Amino acid sequence: MLQPVIGFYSDRHPKPYALAMGMGFTLLGMLLLSRAGSFAMVLAATSLVGLGSSVFHPESSRMARAASGGRHGFAQSFFQVGGNFGSALGPLLAAFIVLRLGQSSIAWFSVAALVAMALLVRVGSWYKGSGAMHAARRTASARHDAVSSRQVVIALVILLALLFSKFIYLASLGSYYTFYLISRFGLSVRSAQIHLFVFLAAVAAGTIIGGPVGDRIGRRQVILTSILGVLPFTLALPYANLFWTRVLTVIIGMVLASAFSVIVVYAQELMPGRVGMIAGLFFGLAFGISGIGAAALGALADRTDIFYVYRLCSYLPAIGVLALWLPRLDTFTPHLEQVSPVVPELEPAAE
Predict the structure, then answer these.
(1) Tens of pLDDT, residues 51-65
(2) 170: Cβ–Cβ under 8 A, 6 or more apart, which residues?
(3) I need a surface site. Which of 142, 195, 234, 343 has the fewest CB within 10 A?
(4) How far is CA 70 from the centre of its chain?
């Protein structure tokens, strides 16, 4: 919920060291989580982690775009795949470390946040000296003449609807896939966690693939294919045996995940000069939809069963048909912010 607000603010008042500060909140949240002895402490710890994300994502998305050299889709995908890879590792770390060593072992993972803070201070120094801090102001007047304000609003509404279908479906797998495997196929907790890791790794692979493909063939085509194109596979999943469940979830994860980075870049091109706000809006909604969707699906599963939830969610990608009404941005290229790498001048060679 905070990410769009922070993105809106940082578009006007860039903060080069905000990334390190956001990671500091994450570090505190991890340490508190390792010692949490009540539900209230768990909420406080996860709120700190969430606050760190809200500070981190809008500004880091702008930095990734500034460093892209014009390959905006690739840069956004490469940036996001770090988070996807971390999410994929989560179930393995839970299965092999936390389950074995207990809650206190979570504190060891805060070392990663500490290392990240040191790296992000360096990134902030580059950002401050590169000229990228004020690029959003210089490009605020760059607009697509072929796309009216009304079309921009309609396109953003369509993109938000696509995010809804994508992340509600991913929430059904990310939150309840292990329960589904245990209930339907009798797998052990550890085996189910490994299956979840495979699915999340496929999501990471789809994320890194989607951006570069969007740079080459057009973002609208990738959005349409990744959301609507996954529908046959989601419809088949509730009726598949264990082997085909593994295959289908890998396909679903890769295809569906390829859309998000492309959607973010497409929306940023709709609204040049609002890179942080758009990143904050879409990242914030992605996390919010996933959290609320997971809770709603859990309540529905309690009232019915997990199999009913998967059958119901299998129709969500049909919302992808709305992508047909997205305006085409590939026929013209606006002047967007670019930051050339700083190359030191060399002394002339002595004769």
Answers:
(1) 888 888 888 888 888
(2) 203, 256, 257, 290
(3) 343
(4) 20
Look over the chain and give the mean of its residue pLDDT values, rounded to a whole number.
Answer: 83
What are the backbone angles phi and psi of residue 28, rounded to the nearest 5°? Answer: -65, -40
The Cβ of residue 248 has, within 10 Å, a number of other Cβ atoms equal to: 21
Residue with tokens 């896939």: 177
Contact 332, 142 (CB under 8 A): no
pLDDT per residue over 176-228, tens digit each? 999 999 999 999 988 998 898 899 889 888 888 888 888 888 888 889 888 98
Would you state the structure tokens that stand for residue 122, as one six-digit string?
A: 């360096």
Backbone angles phi, psi at 299, to 5 degrees: -65, -40
DSSP assignment of 271-311, as one string?
Answer: STT-HHHHHHHHHHHHHHHHHHHHHHHHHHHHHS-HHHHHH
Instruction: Note whether 173 and 104 are within 8 A (CB).
Output: no
Q: Given a cut of 60, is residue 263 above it in pLDDT?
A: yes
User: In what helix (H) or strand (E) does residue 261 lie, and over which residues does it extend?
Assistant: helix 242-270
Taking the chain, what is the end-to-end CA distance rounded to the nearest angstrom? 62
- Where helices occur in 67-98 by DSSP H, the ranges are 72-93
Other C-beta atoms lying within 10 Å of the C-beta of residue 202:
21
303 with 312: CB under 8 angstroms?
no
Within 10 Å of residue 84's Cβ, how many Cβ atoms?
A: 23
Tokens representing residue 250 in the block: 């890998």
Tokens of 31: 């340490």
> Concatenated DSSP letters for 202-258?
HHHHHHHHHHHHHHHH-HHHHHHHHHHTTHHHHHHGGG--HHHHHHHHHHHHHHHHH
Q: Which residues fall within 8 angstroms of residue 138, CB to CB, at 6 or more apart? A: 337
Tokens 């609204």 sit at which residue? Answer: 271
- In three-state secondary structure terms, 54 is helix
Sign, CA dihedral 178-175-173-113, equals negative
Evaluate if residue 330 carries a pLDDT over 60: no
Placement of tokens 């769009």 in the chain: 4
